[in-house]
Amino acid sequence: MKTQILIAALFFSGFVTAQQKKDSLKVNTIEAVNIKKQVFKKQGDRLIYDVASSPIAKGTNTFNLLKQTPMISSIDGKTLKILGKSDAIIYINNKKTNMDSEALIEMLKSTPSEDIQKIEVITVPGSEFQVESTEGVINIVMKKSKNNGYNGTIKMQNEQGYYNNPNAGASFNFRQGKWSGNSNFRTGSWTERQKYSLSNGDPTFRNESYGFNNDPNNNYGGGFNVDYEISKKQSLGFSYNMRYNKSFNSILDITNWQNGILTNRTVNNEDAQTRNHSFNLNYEIKTDSLGSKLTSNVSYLWFNRNKVSFNESFPLTNDTINKYSALHQSVPQIINNYAANIDYLKKTAKGATWLMGISYNHTNTDNDTRQDKLQSGEFVPDSKQTNHFIYKESILGIYLNYERKLTEKISGKAGARYEMTRSTGDIVDKTGFERNYNNLLPYLNLNYAINSDHNLSYTFSSRIRRPRFWELNPSRTYFTPTNYTQNNPFILASKFYNQELNYMYKNAYYANLSFTMVEDASASDMLPLQGKSTGPKVDENGNFIYDADGNMIMETTKFLRYIRTNYGKNRELNLTLGMNKSWFKEIWTTNYSVNLKYSIYKGAVTEDPTSRPGPFETEELEPYIIDVKNYNMSLTLNNVVRLSSKKDWYLGVNYFFASREAMEGGVVGVRQSLDINLKKIIGDWTILAEVNDLFNQGFYRVEGIQPNGKYNNITNFNYPRLFSIGVTYNFGNQKLKKAREMKSANDAVKSRT
User: Fold this and answer.
1) Which pLDDT does position 376 carry in this prediction?
2) How far apart are CA 232 and CA 292, in angstroms?
3) Residue (of 335, 332, 231) closest to 277 by Cα position
4) Three-class SS string for 542-610?
5) Residue 615 contacts by C-beta under 8 Å, 6 or more apart in sequence?
6) Is 527 exposed, middle or buried (0-12, 13-18, 19+ CB in 10 A)?
7) Which residue in 4, 36, 46, 42 sits closest to 21, CA to CA?
8) Which UniProt keywords apply (predicted)?
9) pLDDT tens digit string along 218-232?
10) Can you give the residue ranges of every domain in the chain?
């Protein structure tokens, strides 16, 4: 370093004398001081990963970068988890992304990692965030530059699993004077292949089903964002995002056995289309030089999914019970959401920050399910399974946060969110309900920076989880005539209380202890309800059959119904130990974590609120008892090795392991995955070859047994091993500032579609 640097440092310290100044001029050079920037650190309610200072953030995309971020993991390439348990909600520059989950993942995969300044992980979000249950927030902060110009990315990828799945995408960004914007487009096709094994019964009865599902998909998505800087203090923006998915000729083929005897075969052919359009208008004005600002949003979301299926069951025996049957089913879902919010952020001269806001969401859903059954060679309406369900929901939210630094070492943030929910559900000409409830959701965060090496923080948060809109639609999806899933319009919102204690050592090692309480809990997956229905035996024309004495002949059918419903409460204690560190002059970068969990699930399901027996029919349901205490662990090991001094070859080796885990629906088997990738950077080109789940071990297996001996086992093998190669080309001015990312008023609704 030069002499002037030393002089300036001495001057500002207040200890420079005239003689010292004179003497300092005689110094020609001093030894350079090597100050290493902190790559991973705790700050307030979040953990910050400084991507710009990390050696792994070169020549990759944002999704792969997130997978290498401490506390974040992904084992399927489609979803992101925080601490291995919480779903991740993505924000960009403190604004929630305005697109559905699949479009969001594709956007992250097409965004160059060089555009990222830092990644913030908020394991327990504050009252200002529109999240539910135990969801955490990942805030991606983009690099800033005021250069005019344009840039873009073109990406092509080919993935080989059971089938070949190609996809491509492009993004374009521009900035010129007061105007800035970005756009993106993605297209791809993939066919999902799954193999099923289902078995259920009791010590006296055994039902087994084996089969497969081929689900071809064509996907198109994209959108644009335009921002106009009215003045240095005011900005106006508009964004639009869309996604279209077409899945025709999806086939589910199941062969069924009862007590070891081959009985029938069920084939379900399904055509489905999904359309999603969202619009957002955003206005922002800065009210002072300290960073205070007022932000307002108006949003509209339109979602439409139309599914049509034809289900046939072919008898493979000559008995009178198993006979040919068929049904047509149409299950449309239309969602219209209108939303608005106003936020005011006030910063004071003493360093305190106030945030206050109000939001309003109104949602209409229309689900006109039609089902016809084969009778006398013709299809006639099935009155029990034909449902026109109309659901309306309004949510008014008011929230307030206060944040400040209390001392040099202690800082805090406190807030609350008050939500008023009004909803009505109407199954036309059958039944309905009205639910009105209010929730006060407090939040507290305390952070103690003990010294430069040690940091300790505590966070408390209360949230609710509302059911997804598709869960409310009272329709069935059939595996076989007696084995199906059943949605539930009567499911209640669950209440979550989250506490977390976090410790960090030397900005590299961390320990996270969390405790979650859930009331009115619903299972993370559907619960298997076994039972039997008894009703009149009918002939091929649908007429009742009588015996010689004129008595109605009754027949009994056993069924297995998967339903999502409230069952009771659960408690969960999690301990996560992790580290993020580079070795051998940043040649080898590691991101390791282990999660230890103790869970208690307690409750029961004794009735099915969706059951509506017809005339002369009765239904007997076996109570489903949940009394689970369970220890389990998971392990994530991410490694990036720089193979060349030119920093153009990288090797990635990632491993995930999860032990057996008892949950509400049964015991989930061991899962593990070994992923390997090789990356080559050639100027603006990046070539990435990957193998995911090399040994095909990431499949889903559940074993469930009840105290009375009833059991239900599921194995779903989706051919997880994937080989892929992708080519990415970045063009234009790579230092271009991104367009202002805008928060959407209907963000909270998007995750429920």
Assistant:
1) 82
2) 14
3) 335
4) CCECECCCCCECEEEEEEEEEECCEEEEEEEEEEEEEEEEEECCCCEEEEEEEEEEEEEEEEEECCCCC
5) none
6) buried
7) 4
8) Cell outer membrane, Membrane, Receptor, Signal
9) 999 888 989 999 999
10) 1-35, 36-317+354-408+455-750
Percent of the chain with pLDDT over 70: 88
For domain 36-317+354-408+455-750, which architecture applies?
A: Beta Barrel (2.40)
Environment class of 683 (CB within 10 Å of its CB; exposed 0-12, middle 13-18, buried 19+): exposed
454-491 tens-digit pLDDT: 999 999 999 999 998 888 989 999 888 889 999 999 99
Alpha-carbon radius of gyration of the chain: 29
What confidence category does residue 23 fall into, taking pLDDT thresholds of 50, 70 and 90? very low
Mean per-residue pLDDT over the chain, rounded: 86
Phi-psi region of 222 (alpha: psi -120 to 50; beta: other; left: phi over 0): left
Q: Which tokens is 623 given?
A: 């109570």
Q: Which pLDDT belongs to residue 695?
A: 93
Token code pair at residue 220: 């198109």
Q: What is the pLDDT of residues 172-198, one digit of tens each?
A: 888 898 999 888 888 999 999 999 999
Decide if 71 contacts 85 (C-beta within 8 A). no
Closest CA to 417 of 402, 398, 401: 398
Would you state the structure tokens that stand for residue 325, as one six-digit string?
């049957």
Express each pLDDT in 614-667 by its tens digit.
888 899 999 999 999 999 999 999 999 999 998 889 999 999 999 999 999 999
**Exposed, middle or buried: residue 645 (CB in 10 Å: 0-12, 13-18, 19+)?**
exposed
